[in-house]
Amino acid sequence: MWRSPEPRFDVASAIVQGGRDYQEDAIVSDFPFGADTGVVVLADGMGGHAAGDVASKIVVTEVFSELKFQSANFGDFESEIPQYLTAAAVNANNVVREHVQEHPETRGMGATLVSLVLVENRMFWMSIGDSPLYHFRNGKIKQLNEDHSMAPQIDFMVQSGLLDAEAGRNHPDRNCLTSVILGDRVAKSDCPKTPFELEVGDIVVVSSDGLQYLEEAQIQKILHRYRRRKSAEIAGYLLEAIENLADPDQDNVSFSVIKLNHNKPVIRAIRAKPVGHVDTHASTITRVVDPTDVDKVAAKDTKPVIKEVKPVAKVDDTPSQEVDGAVPQAKVAAGGK
Questions:
Q1: Strand 253-260 relative to strand 203-207: parallel, antiparallel, unpaired?
Q2: What does each C-alpha distance from 22 to 32, 89, 284 come to in angstroms?
Q3: pLDDT digits 0-9 by tens, 252-305
Q4: Region Disordered: which residues (predicted)?
Q5: What span, in angstroms and rounded, lies between the C-alpha atoms of 85 and 154?
Q6: Helix or strand (DSSP H, E) at 128
Q7: Which CATH architecture is the domain 2-336 placed in?
């Protein structure tokens, strides 16, 4: 028997192709029922015909596979989580390199990475590239992770008066990456050794840069206005705002919205089980990557398969939510613990 006033985490993930010919984003989130931990892994592929979609699937599958394997240690070995995140990223980079060696036609493919581990109210992350990790508290939004693109340098030039604001916003090199997973040396990574502590009511959004077609002030406004709504509703309003832009060049968009509902320990009332009883509690998982690909991706000549977000059955039998009014072909799956 499990007793808790409400889930600690309220989580929803969404993905939409936008105006692009390819879906090069991949995302998976896993918040097991009854546990105090959760994981989100997101990758934004690059390469187009050079298989950016394959790169993002490989990165998400490899990183999630490693973190899932280590998840039993998160509580007892919390100080080692940054090492787990780093090792997972290194392994993903190695698998990308092996894939390119075996399939030379995919040379140039790569992906950004944001991987997130939450233990109660403590958040660890690893990021490579320009996919943002946002934190919202008390009406204000802030990007927590480093931006490994030319955008920070261009913004600095604007602030220094070397460039006017409009030229900075439209600079052709603004989205050029200074670090990315390519199967080569990774130039930069952001993986703090100490966790970021969340407070009750905080909202975290981990996303691909497609969400940044919205101004940061607009994202902040949406989070503030709907801060008391469920994460699936917030995700729907973000997708609706993107749809309203009607930008024919809209990039792929994927993101997870995470709300911290409370920071109380989960109370477990242990009841004696009959001899031979097998506990079949399952996890609440929101996936974009097919779970069978975790094993397949390591096999040679096998490419993982991307899917639209599909809810996995939950223990509490609460159906995943698909948000009304969301962008066509965009799905929102909600979960929590």
A1: antiparallel
A2: 31, 24, 28
A3: 999 999 999 988 865 544 444 444 444 433 444 444 443 334 344 334 343 333
A4: 316-337
A5: 30
A6: strand 122-128
A7: 4-Layer Sandwich (3.60)
Assess contact for 260 and 9: CB atoms under 8 A.
Answer: yes
**By C-alpha distance, which of 68, 22, 46 is closest to 131?**
46
Joined together, the tokens standing for residue 261 give 């509902």
pLDDT in tens, 110-156: 999 999 999 999 999 999 999 999 999 999 999 999 999 898 888 88
Show the tokens assigned to 117.
């581990």
Which residues neighbour 219 within 8 Å (Cβ) at sequence distance 6 or greater? 134, 141, 205, 211, 238
Helix 52-70 and helix 81-102, axial crossing angle in degrees, nearest 10: 140
Contact residues for 56 (Cβ-Cβ < 8 A; gap 6+)? 24, 25, 26, 43, 44, 45, 111, 306
Backbone phi, psi, residue 314, to 5° = -105, 155
pTM of the model as a whole: 0.79
